[in-house]
Design the sequence.
């Protein structure tokens, strides 16, 4: 494959196969799927900190999570705020910059067998109930990014969000793969997936309720109108709206 071209990777629905594996105990599956480590000491620390501190309300909960969650994650910068009842999966592969705000009920899921995980820059806000998830992929979020509440961002291989990007509430940015449906002799769930990268370049604005498919690049300084369905790449300095999203004019 030539460098610079969009990579496509075919994979199976590995999570279903993993959960049905009779050779692993439930305890081992929990370690692999949630913790990402076989260390018993790390498991005990994870259970104590998330079990007692994650649901703790008020200023005391914010303070204690800010102090003790640092020991779970791969990297935590200064002045990071961990909201109430957040979920951390494979936390050692989660890396946070300075002044990051993670609101209540956010999921940070960096799971994968050979991925590097989630990298979040400085001055980033992730809104309540949002899910930032890896499906054995890597997910990079630049500085000064705001992600609205109830959004779902998933990486199956590589998903890159540049600096100064605004993402509205209820957005779905899914690089987790599309199911193949060519064959009719076996269920579609068993036919594997095609996984494509997603790139959102610097200074882009993604309107509320937007959906972005894999294989898409949104150019820098581009505005995507609310409710759009982005199925093809959008060039820089564009305004795009609709289902599917089309460029209606240039900003420059």
Sequence:
């Amino acid at each position: 494959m030539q460098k610079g071209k969009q990579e496509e990777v075919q994979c199976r629905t590995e999570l279903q196969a993993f959960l049905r594996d009779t050779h692993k105990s439930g305890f081992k599956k929990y370690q692999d799927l949630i913790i990402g480590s076989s260390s018993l000491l790390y498991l005990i620390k994870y259970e104590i900190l998330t079990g007692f501190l994650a649901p703790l309300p008020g200023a005391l909960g914010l303070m204690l999570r800010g102090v003790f969650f640092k020991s779970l994650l791969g990297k935590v910068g200064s002045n990071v705020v961990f909201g109430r009842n957040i979920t951390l999966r494979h936390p050692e592969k989660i890396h946070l910059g300075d002044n990051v705000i993670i609101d209540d009920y956010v999921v940070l899921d960096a799971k994968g067998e050979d991925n590097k995980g989630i990298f979040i820059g400085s001055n980033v806000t992730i809104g309540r109930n949002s899910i930032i998830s890896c499906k054995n992929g890597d997910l990079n979020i630049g500085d000064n990014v705001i992600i609205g509440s109830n959004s779902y961002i998933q990486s199956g291989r590589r998903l890159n969000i540049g600096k100064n990007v605004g993402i509205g509430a209820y957005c779905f940015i899914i690089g987790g793969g599309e199911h193949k449906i060519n064959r009719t002799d076996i269920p579609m769930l068993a036919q594997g997936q095609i996984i494509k990268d997603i790139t959102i370049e610097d200074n882009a604005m993604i309107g509320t309720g937007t959906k972005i498919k894999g294989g898409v690049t949104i150019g820098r300084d581009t505005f995507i109108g609310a409710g759009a369905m982005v199925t093809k790449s959008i060039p820089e300095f564009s305004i795009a709206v609709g289902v599917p999203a089309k460029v209606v004019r240039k900003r420059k």
User: Anything to note?
Assistant: Helices lie at 14-19, 26-35, 40-53, 58-68. The chain is about 15% helix and 30% strand. The first strand starts at residue 8 and ends at 11.
